[in-house]
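Hello forum,

I keep getting stuck at the same step: I have a sequence, I want structure tokens, and every attempt I make locally crashes halfway through. Rather than fight my setup again tonight, could one of you with a working pipeline run this one for me? It's a single chain of 374 residues.
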Amino acid sequence: MNSPFNLLFSGDLSFSGIFKSKVRRNDTIFDDSISAALKSADFVITNLEGPVTDQPLTEQNAIDLRQPLNGVAYLAQRCNPVFNLANNHTLDCGLNGLQETTRQIESAGGRSFGADKTAAAVYLTNGEVRIALIAVLLPGAYSAEKGAESVFTFSDSGYLQRQVHEASEKAEYVILNVHGGEEYTRFPSPRRRKILRRLARLQNVDIIIAHHSHVFQGIENVNETLIFYSLGNFVFDLPKHRAFPATRQSALVQFHFDKEGFQYELLPAATDIDAGLVQEAGSEFLEEIKRRSDFSAYYRNWLREAHSVLYADSGQNEPAEKNTVRLKERSFLQLVFSASFYARSFRILRDQEKRSSYFGALLYRFLKKTGFIN
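Reply #2:
Ran it on my machine without issues. Output:
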């Protein structure tokens, strides 16, 4: 009997913060369990958040997610990596930064996909089973000035269906990697969930792996297509993320493919930011994943999550606990009739990815105040 083809998917990877200095020194950032999982897979597919370059940032006040120049080689020494580049930080240093990133990946013996406006598939095989990976960027993650033409942005389901059909004729399985949407909530927004469920109904899509929330979200089966709404942060250290404890939890998904079908298992992971270490998490997080994958009370849970994120994120650089206290001291009417409320609302309304979270938070506050939600 042939051995299965093993693919391991991780969440967002950024050698930022404490991880940047440790990777530059070639220090250990994975515990033994995570290291063994990476090494055992035929390929490890991860979302690379940020260019591997020392080119200057092309946007003023942009978050600096430039990877250390040895970052790709660091990971390639520990696994056989495949990097998804269809995300909102790929072009933070322009096309020159993207080109240097792909050179670094190729020189380290890795592979990449997603930095192509045609949604071209990359194919992985063990000689028995062939798998197609296609990357999709959701609308709104890039502005035209940042060069959306360099990645495939989903806007035409008919075109994407043709790309999927072509890939399915060359491979036994087709996996979509999708980037974009809301951030920090443990449940996907209604808008993003609707888009991913629509993608799941495309013929010949077997699995959808989504990113961008920086938090592990649930798993759902739609039309016999598995949707992983977000795997969370695999390796990441940004000051803003520290206001959201859920950004320190994630899961690796290990798939076992053969000609007849596939199985998967989850390896929960947790990040110790102070130590700069990604380690296996306890089994209680698997129970939490089950709760997040229960969509029976989805809308109420989503509103509550949006509200929680608004509290933690509304004070900018203040600690999350102080933000919460400050907001709770203000009534709904005080919020609605304050100048800062409208100034912040205007900024958020211009951001397509934040609108649903913001309006969900306001609706939750109203429903709770009027007694419709406990």
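DSSP finds twelve helices and 14 strands in the chain. If your local run keeps crashing, start a new thread with the error log.
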